[in-house]
User: What shape does this take?
Amino acid sequence: MGSPVNIPFQRYIQLNHSLPTAIYLQIVFEFIKAIQTGLLPEGTKLPGTRILCKELSINRNTLVKALHDLEAQGYIEILPNKGIFILSDQKQQTKVKAQPSKEKPSEQDTTGFPFKRSSILENPVEVSDLNYQFNDGMPDLRLVHTDVLARLYVSKLKRRKNTRTWEQIQLQSHLQFKAHFSNFLNLTRGLRISSSNLLTTSNHEISLYLVTKLLISPGDKVVVATPSYYRSNMTLSDSGAQIITIPVDEHGIKTDSLKLICQSQKIRVLYLTSNFHYPTTTCLSAKRRIEVLELAATYGFVILEDDYDFDFHFDNNPVLPLAALDNHERVVYIGSFGRSLPTGFGYGFISAPEAFIQELEKHQSILEPGIDVIKEQVLTDWLQEGEVHRLSKKNRKIYKERRDFFVRLLKEKLKGKIKFLIPLRGLAVWVEWLDDFNLVRLQRECKANGLFLPTTILYQTKTLTATRLGFGHMNEEEMEIAVELLSVSLERVLYRVE
Assistant: This one.
C-alpha cells in the first residue's frame, strides 16, 4: 500500500471514552469489525505505533496491548523491521486462537438500562451534498415511469369492495403475485421453480438476513471472495460466521483455492456473486461454474448465490445463475427485482427448496407480518401486461448507451493511468490505477474540486489500488464533468500540486 498513514482510521476506529469498556478492547473490536467488513483488507500495512497513536489520540501502551491481542487472535501479523499487516480470515484459522475477552461495549452511560451493541453493524455509508458524485452502481431514479405506476395504483385503490374478508384478499393477491413472479423468474433467469420455491421480501437486504439466520450458526465457516461486498460481510459476520476469503481473477473466484479449503476444513456456506462479482464486475466462467457445483455436491456446503444486478445486462444472451444449473438442491438463490422502480416498489426474493422456503416463512411472519396488497396487485398487472419487460428493455438501452459513453470518457481522460474491462452487465466499472498513490488523498482532492468519492468504493492493499465507479445515475453531461474532475484531481495527486 502506498501510504498507510493516510488510511482514515478515525472513520474506521470509533472510540468512546465514556463507555465502561477498556479503550484497548474497543480498539480490538473496532479493528476486527473493519477487517471482517472488508474496510481493512488482507495485506494492508498499518502505520507505525507512533503515528497510529496520534491518529487515534491514545497512548502507546494502550495501542501495543490492543495490537498484541489482535495478533494473538490472528487478525494481524507484526513483522520486525517490516511493519504490521492485516491477515486474511483464512490465515486466522492457522493461528493459535486466544479466547477473546467477554467484556464488550454493551451500554451507554446515558441510558438507564443495559443493552447489546453491535461492533459489526456500523453503517460506513457517507452522504455528501456535492453536485457530482460517484457511487457503487446505482440506477437513475429520474428514469422511473411514475405516471404508469400512479395510474395502476389509483385504479387498485378505487376498486369496489367485495364480500371477501381482508385476509382472503391478502392471501389470494399474494398467491397470484407469487405465481406470476415465479413464472417471470423462470422466463428471465432459466430457473425451474414453482411458487412454493419462492419467498418475496421487501428488499434484498432482508432476503440475505433471513437466509443467514437459518443457514449459519456461530462458528460456521463461510467462504467469500476478496475483495467483496462490505454489506454482505457485515450480515455474515453478525450471524457469527467465521469468514474465509479466496481470491478472484478475471474468470471469477479461484476454484482451486476453494477446493484446498474444502479439503482441510468443513465449510458451511459459499457466498457468491457469480454473474457480476462485487466489486470487480467479473463473471464466473462456465468451467468454474461446473466446478463450484461439483465441489458443493462433494463437500456438502451450501451455495448462497447473490444475483443483485441481473436487471442490468447489456448482451442478448445473459449468463444464467448457478441456480438454473443446480441438480442437487445445493443453491439458495437471492436477488433483486425492480431496482429501476421508485423506492418501496422493488422486491427482494429467495429461491430455494420448498422445505427451506417454508421455514423462512415462519421467520418472515415475525419480521414482515403484513402484505402490501395494493403494491402486489400493481406489480402483478405489470407482469401480466408485459410492462416490466418493456421498461427493462428501454432502461437497458439507456444504460448501455451510458456505459459506452462512460467507457469512452475513461479512455480519453485517464489514458495511461488506468486499466479496466468493459462490463457486460451492471452500472459500475472496476478501475485499477496504474500509478502508486494513496486513494484517500485522491478522495480529498476530488472533494476539494467538487467531486465526491465515498470510501466504500475505494480499494487499496499492498498489491491493489482500485475503485468501483458507478455511472448509471448520471447522464452524459454529468459523466463528462465528473470524469474531468477525477482526471484533474488525479494529476494534482500524482504531481503533488498543492
Notes: The chain has 16 helices and 17 strands. Residues 387-413 form the longest helix (27 residues). The first strand starts at residue 45 and ends at 46.
